[in-house]
Amino acid sequence: MTSAPGKLTKADSGGWTLWKSCGGRPEFGNPAAFNSCIAQSCWESFTVTLKTPSFFDQMIQFTGNQPGTGGLVTFKDRIG
What is the C-alpha to C-alpha distance for residues 32 and 1, in angstroms, rounded to an integer? Predict the structure, then answer.
């Protein structure tokens, strides 16, 4: 709980292979749209548990939404 998880590749999970094997079935989507360049589609999620509301106060200021009422919030690294 003190560091970010390691980045995985397609080889680390059988999920990509399974999804790709469903090729020709449009209802399952197109895995190549997501795994042809994993670095550009990589994301992480996290949960915050605090004893004071300071984080949520800042998120309300940042997003304009009350916690639990808005959509996901993306924090994007600036590369380059």
Answer: 32
Token couple for 32: 């190549």
Per-residue pLDDT reduced to its tens digit, 5-44: 777 777 787 887 888 888 778 888 888 777 777 677 667 7
Rounded to whole angstroms, how far apart are CA atoms 49 and 34?
31
Q: Which residues of 40-56 are buried (b: 16+ CB within 10 A; e: fewer)?
A: eeeeeeeeeeeeeeeee
Q: State the pLDDT confidence band at 52, using cuts at 50, 70 and 90.
A: very high
Please tell me the pTM assigned to this model: 0.40
Nearest-CA neighbor of 43 among 79, 16, 15, 74?
A: 74
Measure the CA–CA gap between 23 and 54, rounded to whole angstroms. 47
C-alpha gyration radius of the chain: 17
